[in-house]
Amino acid sequence: MIKGRHKDDVLFVPFHTTIDIKEGLVYINQVMKGINLEYTETIDLVFNMDLSNNKLTGGIPPEITELTLLVGLNLSHNHLNGSIPDSIGKMKALNSIDFSDNQFTGMIPPSLAALNFLSYINFSYNNLSGRIPSGNQLQTLNDPSIYAGNTDLCGAPLSNNCSDHESPPATKEKIYKDADEPKNLWFYVDIMCGFITGFWGIIGVLVFKKQWRQKLFMTAEVTIDKVYVAVTVRASKIKRSIEAK
């Protein structure tokens, strides 16, 4: 919820605009180009919202993104924080966005690329991070100053290369991999020790126990003889069967 300076349940914002909350209804009076505009239940028809240069705190209410006819949204020079709602991409009519000089964090929503009428944006001097989205109108907004003051942002039009920002996770992964290498080494050592112990345990018994060795060879010889006899008998039967046909 956005909170700001208020008096008698009236929230004052610049440019001769007031938001008055009475009996659960929202009344907005805005003077634009000398014309007094009043919105009550038709607040969804608002086409310009300028709440800049106040002392607003908190996050952006997700309900704002339901104002699909909004052309201009200015929340600059406040103390707003939290992330920018990804649902801002639903505000298809937006032409101007100014969120500068706040304390917003997280990534700039990729859904902004879906806005085809953007001609002005300003996200400078926040705590935003990650890759700057691209596509559609965002490609034409190539002034680096609109992203200034966000040291963790990367990608065009900034000079910060996103690969430089993405390298620490790779380094971290390498550290984990290096840490696992000693464990893998001991795993293979254990396997080799087990194989050597088992192999030489059997061979050693056969080498040093003559009686066992003779018994093993006799068993092997008897087995081979049985296999040979069985194969010979089977082959003879097959041969006779073929000749009979």
From TrEMBL:
Location of the protein in the cell: Membrane
Membrane topology: Single-pass type I membrane protein
Keyword list, A-Z: Glycoprotein, Leucine-rich repeat, Membrane, Repeat, Signal, Transmembrane, Transmembrane helix
CC per GO annotation: membrane
Main localization, broad class: membrane
Protein name listed in UniProt: Uncharacterized protein
Transmembrane segments: 185-208
Pfam family, one: LRR_1
Family, per entry: Belongs to the RLP family.
Source organism superkingdom: Eukaryota
